[in-house]
């Protein structure tokens, strides 16, 4: 039996029939098995090979991801994590609005052609528009922000399928389609507003993440967390056909499945113990940011009536933060909002240092690692802890 783990062709054929959760017990049996599983995963989860279907230079794209904190989500992320392929599936790329133009130009450089939507042509009053024209129109403010779009239009209108989305740009080449989703807030904020949990996965430059891995890849169940539109129903039908059980009545789930797979009413983040983080080979990545804003987001699957919704609150201060962040609980947002406003006002006559690295590494991490337990006991202690951290950081940053 041990000899099998010394022969890659044999154990590859065996491991290829196992899901990632099923590989974990195998890797724990002995040292040779652990090495065999590790080397198999390097080949099975080869992100450069995965991306080569769409791009001639996957490494260049991943360096772009590192520079711009762009992520891949949608069905492509599921295919990668599930080691499967869906015929004719497109590639969905989510970019924060400060980087969407750069990402779009990179896609055009790969030989893709921008295919505007009828609405984009209508807004510009032209039969055809270029990508530069489409994104410039958005930058000049002709597209209303979320809070100016009627609530019933968000979701019902395909131009506003979920909150936080600014616009969608479609690129095509040789029958392949790449969609660039320009997000108003952090890309993860958009992902948290998908129709159900099975699609809450994303691929960053250095790792792939699944926010509900046990539900998605073990139980193969997906809980609906928003009001379903006609557009959502089509997507849900696809995932039903792909083998997922769509749970429309979460109260019918057993308590064991609910608590173990969906972890309701708990503040979560992409690097917590309930998420699956799959590290990727980064040996060819030249740019490594000190802060990857997609990781510093939090949410809670909260009860609403007899169902669930994703509770998260956006922190957005353009003068102080390069990116926006989705956080839970609301008390954390309120505290950080207030402290950032104080900082911006106090130093309004001086060049402001962007606070992203400090906010991420100290305030948010302090909350998750040290303050989470305090929150449920005394919200006042949460505020004091964050204020103390912010005060120390403020002194350090101003000195720089």
Give the overall average pLDDT: 80
* End-to-end Cα distance: 60 Å
Q: Describe the largest sheet.
A: 5 strands, mixed
Name the structural class. Answer: alpha+beta
Strand content: 15-25%
| Radius of gyration over C-alpha positions, nearest whole angstrom | 22 Å
Number of helical segments with 4 or more residues: 17
Low-confidence stretches: 141-160, 368-379, 395-400
E-strand count = 14
User: In one word, what is the shape?
Assistant: globular
The strand line-up of the biggest sheet is 1-2-5-4-3
Helix share, percent: 40-55%
In brief, what are we looking at here?
The chain is α+β, with helices and mostly antiparallel strands.
Keywords for this structure?
disordered C terminus, 400 residues, three-stranded antiparallel beta sheet, 17 helices, alpha+beta
Question: Topology, please?
Answer:
Elements lengths: L7 H8 L4 H8 L3 H14 L2 H5 L6 H11 L2 E3 L1 H8 L8 E6 L3 H10 L3 E2 L3 H7 L6 H9 L13 H4 L8 E9 L2 E8 L3 H5 L9 E3 L3 E4 L2 H6 L2 E3 L6 H12 L3 E3 L7 H8 L13 E4 L20 E5 L2 E5 L1 E3 L9 E3 L2 H17 L9 H20 L3 H21 L1
Parallel strand pairs: 2-5, 8-9
Antiparallel strand pairs: 1-2, 3-4, 4-5, 6-7, 7-10, 11-12, 13-14
Helix pairs in contact: 2-3, 15-17, 16-17
């Amino acid at each position: 039996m041990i000899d099998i783990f010394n022969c890659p062709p044999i154990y590859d054929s065996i491991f290829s029939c196992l899901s990632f959760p099923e590989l974990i017990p195998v890797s724990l049996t002995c040292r040779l098995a652990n090495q065999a599983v590790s080397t198999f995963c390097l080949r099975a989860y080869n992100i450069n090979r995965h991306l080569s279907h769409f791009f001639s230079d996957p490494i260049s794209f991943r360096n772009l991801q590192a520079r711009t904190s762009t992520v891949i989500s949608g069905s492509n992320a599921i295919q990668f994590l599930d080691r499967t392929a869906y015929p004719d599936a497109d590639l969905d790329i989510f970019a924060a609005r400060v980087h969407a133009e750069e990402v779009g130009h990179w896609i055009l450089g790969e030989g893709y052609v921008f295919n505007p939507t009828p609405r984009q042509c209508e807004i510009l009053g032209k039969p055809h528009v270029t990508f530069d024209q489409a994104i410039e129109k958005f930058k000049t403010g002709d597209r209303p922000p979320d809070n100016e779009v009627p609530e019933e239009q968000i979701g019902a209108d395909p131009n506003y399928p979920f909150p936080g989305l600014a616009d969608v740009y479609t690129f095509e080449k040789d029958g392949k389609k790449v969609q660039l989703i320009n997000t108003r807030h952090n890309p993860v904020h958009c992902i948290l507003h998908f129709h159900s949990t099975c699609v809450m996965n994303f691929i960053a430059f250095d790792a792939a993440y699944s926010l509900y891995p046990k539900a998605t890849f073990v139980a193969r169940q997906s809980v609906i967390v928003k009001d379903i539109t006609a557009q959502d129903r089509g997507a849900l039908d696809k995932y039903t056909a792909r083998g997922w059980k769509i749970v429309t009545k979460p109260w019918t789930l057993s308590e064991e499945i609910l608590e173990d797979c969906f972890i309701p009413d708990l503040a979560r983040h992409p690097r917590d113990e309930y998420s699956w983080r799959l590290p990727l080979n980064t040996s060819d990545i030249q740019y490594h940011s000190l802060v990857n804003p997609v990781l510093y987001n939090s949410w809670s699957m909260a009860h609403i009536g007899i169902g669930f919704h994703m509770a998260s609150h956006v922190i957005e201060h353009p003068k102080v933060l390069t990116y926006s962040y989705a956080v839970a609980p609301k008390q954390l947002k309120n505290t950080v909002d207030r402290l950032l406003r104080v900082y911006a006002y106090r130093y309004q006559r001086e060049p402001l240092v962007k606070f992203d690295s400090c906010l991420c590494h100290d305030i948010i991490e302090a909350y998750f690692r040290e303050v989470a337990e305090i929150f449920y006991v005394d919200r006042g202690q949460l505020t004091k802890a964050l204020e103390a951290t912010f005060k120390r950081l403020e002194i350090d940053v101003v000195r720089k």
